Amino acid sequence: MSNEEVKKAFGAAADDYVKSELHAKGEDLQALLEAIQPAAGKEEVLDVATGAGHVVHTVAPHVKRVTATDMTPEMLETAQAFVASKGHTNVTFTEAAAESLPFALEQFDLVITRLAAHHFAATEAFIKEAWRVLKPGGRLYVLDNVAPEDEDLDHFYNKIEKWRDPSHNRAFKKTEWMQLIEAHSFNVEQVRSFSKRFTFNDWCDRMKVPAAEQEKLSSYMLSQDERFQQAFSIDQALDGSVESFSGQSILLQAQKQPS
């Protein structure tokens, strides 16, 4: 999936992400604020792939300044309008891909990305860029959906995500995130896990999945054996389609170490 295809997918869905309950009110946002423990508004924060701007809205009142990036112009416009409606004045917006950040060496105290990394074309390049723009001792926060550690369940989860949204690249396992980040001069300080409940119709509608394709995806999910049904807590609606299912996300905090 190219960056241009990701832009097309999210340009069409930008407004829906502002309204999404999963994105706007996730438990992970409060956990993020608790983890950051802002130091009297002194931090310079970079929010990578800001989406609708929910991270910005959460942290802006507590830090010196937030720079928000996204490579999708429509998303940036939506985020700017949302953030302005909340009265935040210490935020700037920049169009940029996560793998190529147009910022100076050691510019930020914190780098955050939330519910976006599974779309990144080159996750390793993003981690290198995060390390570059962070000040010594600065922290990286990755909040994202993760795949189960079991290989079959991992394959199933990434398959349905890709089916529903072709801009999906890969949701890593929790252990993959830890290994990848520690391999690039970060020290993982904490990892918190969160259970997520997805309402099937909302999950599909947010990415404009046609009704016929939703039926196929629903049938595929319900055709899996009991191990998959239990692992993802797949519930069936009265009409025989998928009503909802469960997944998992993490908040990972890592500190930049000397190279």
Q: Can you walk me through this structure?
A:
- By secondary structure, the chain is an alpha/beta fold.
- Helix content is 42%, strand content 26%.
- The protein has eleven helices and eight strands.
- Strands 1, 2, 3, 4, 5, 6, 7 and 8 form an eight-stranded mixed beta sheet that branches.
- Helix 4 (54-59) links the parallel strand 1 and strand 2.
- The longest helix has 17 residues, at 3-19.
- The two termini are 31 Å apart.
- The relative contact order is 0.15.
- Residues 9-14 have low confidence and may be disordered.
- Structural class assignment: alpha/beta
Counted by DSSP, the helix tally is 11
Instruction: Give the C-level CATH assignment.
Output: Alpha Beta
Describe the biggest sheet? 8 strands, mixed
Q: What would the principal axes of the Cα set say about the shape? A: globular
CATH superfamily: Vaccinia Virus protein VP39
Helix content: 40-55%
List keywords for this structure.
single chain; 259 residues; alpha/beta; Rossmann fold; eight-stranded mixed sheet; 11 helices; 42% helix
